[in-house]
């Protein structure tokens, strides 16, 4: 029993498992929140903002070939702004809203992480850095990012778009689809080919004259 | 054009061809050539190619070797493990006690969600909980990413081999990858689907949370369960569980034994993709806290009370096979509609051939890292074997004859038990083996490092390259080195840990072959005068042929002109 107690006390002393900015329970978790600490270069909290993100398969409907999605896939904030994120999960499985690449002195591993173990709602806060940067936000459950749960958080001017964000940018490793051989599509194909052909013939003949 | 040059060109072509043949190999011209002119002079065959660069190989990629020792966590006695990367003892404790019953510091040392395994209510008052809620998710391994060519989250079954797969996994939390810097899956997301253990008589609520992008179910194969909404069969008992949905299976199994669970949607695809796992019902005993999940199968670090009564240790052994023509389809598109078409309608399992053969989710040499059966003399080891491949498994143990104590979760009458060294398992069958290490010339031939493998020889290869497949070993512990790897007396196994070997770039016996007898032969170079002359003659022949072509053109052109003149 003494050994057990000793192990228990030893484990309490180990710092690796707990951060002050962590809430966790049977509902899910919010990790590496930042409500107060100013990012470097921010003199003060320049403003307050609130966003609502809903997650679930419902939001995949507008984007063919995806299964899961967010209610919004791009967010813009000014620099040094405190953002309160309300995250709602409408599915009966786990979903996450995880922002990557934030300053690691504020967020361990650069991550602000919200996770719901099932249907439910939670909220968490982070402060946008003093940088023009586009951050990745996603659900890191296997294949959820790939199947639609990918978003971008643009701070200030941003630093360009991220690839394969539903409704915003295309894929880099592209899916290949067959060619529609319906009347309309084929007619359009032939017409356009004829246009190209006549243009080149026209230039060729004029050159000969 | 005159006729004369054409004839002379033809003549030259024939002469040059004969000269070329004579220079290349006169034996082709006349079988007795060398009898007339004497034997050919010695020309050394090409030198061997240099031995390939294998890169730096890691035999055991150990992360937490300290986890190998025995632990007691929260009152749970966790047996030592000899795996290169043993199961996380804190996770084992959380599985035994329930994620609801461990203190936060223990749970934080796992990657389990708080509600993964909930254990409450000792209804029969025998000292262990009887209401058990188990949550499983479905993860894809080695899938496609629209952002690049790397596979996500990745899982190597053998060095550099990443076939696509789906698995049932305990409900977890956080990232799918081991950390932010890698695309490698975290340790909970792996082949095989995690073995599940419950106690007979428990009220088990098994919740399938479908985190995957296709519909799925769970069929509790061989486990006592009622029919309605509970059998996992879309054609009969229930609707499919769609992405984002969950399904609750309620069972109270009356019969103990080694069973299985698998998805019953498009079974010929989903079963082979990896949605199959061991489901073990342990005997109902007092104070019987069973280890609900055994991630990665292999050694059970906290065997049940019933198993401990008859055995010193217990191993789960799940055999699987992969046809990359099916499994790697998930790497060809990110669009689930295309994948559904390719997998369900275009792939034809009746034309399928298996390429990779795994024991507990890995093929040799990675089986050495985590699927060794490590024993001492005079021990009883319980092996629960599942054949998840689509063919007969002919499991053979070197140096040992084990006793089959149960088939498909039903005990064999002790008088009728069979002791043998090849255990045949039809697809989906289970046998329980008693591996008794008594050196009596029957049960064991003595201590050593003894192979254990499927004797259907294709299964000892990785896509045809041996050694590979589901080869593992029964190792007496004194033969283990400090990295928990077997110190055999045979050839060095480290070359097999290089991806180069399984790309087929390395001669099979390269490491053992100091003389280079069996290195790859080099290719022919132009070295002798004969070679030089031969090439020049071939050049001349080419010139003559070109001239002939040119004459042919002139001839045809002349004919055309004549025809035209005649018309006008």
Structural commentary:
- The complex is a heterodimer of chains A (209) and B (568).
- Chain A has 209 residues and is an alpha+beta fold.
- Chain A has a domain at 19-155: Immunoglobulin-like.
- Chain A contains two helices and eleven strands; from the N terminus they run H-E-E-E-E-E-E-E-E-E-E-E-H.
- In chain A, the strands form two sheets. In chain A, strands 1-2-8-7-10-11-5 form a seven-stranded mixed β-sheet, with no helix packed on it. Chain A has a four-stranded mixed β-sheet with strand order 4-3-6-9, with no helix packed on it.
- In chain A, strand 1 and strand 2 form a beta hairpin.
- Chain A is elongated, with a radius of gyration of 25 Å.
- Chain A starts with a helix and ends with a helix.
- Mean pLDDT of chain A is 91; it is low at 8-19.
- Chain B has 568 residues and is an alpha+beta fold.
- Chain B has three domains: 3-46 and 528-567; 113-308 and 320-347, Sandwich (Immunoglobulin-like); 368-512, Cupredoxins -  blue copper proteins (Immunoglobulin-like), CATH 2.60.40.
- Chain B is built from eleven helices and 26 strands.
- Chain B has helices spanning 3-24, 33-37, 89-97, 104-108, 267-273, 305-310, 324-327, 336-346, 367-370, 499-502, 529-567; strands spanning 71-73, 76-78, 117-120, 131-141, 143-145, 148-152, 165-170, 196-199, 203-209, 219-221, 246-251, 257-262, 276-282, 298-299, 313-322, 356-359, 373-375, 380-387, 393-397, 402-407, 410-411, 418-420, 422-425, 430-436, 449-454, 472-476.
- In chain B, helix 1 packs antiparallel against helix 11.
- The chains are: A alpha+beta (209), B alpha+beta (568).
- Chains A and B meet through helix 1 of A and helix 4, strand 4, strand 5, strand 6 and helix 8 of B.
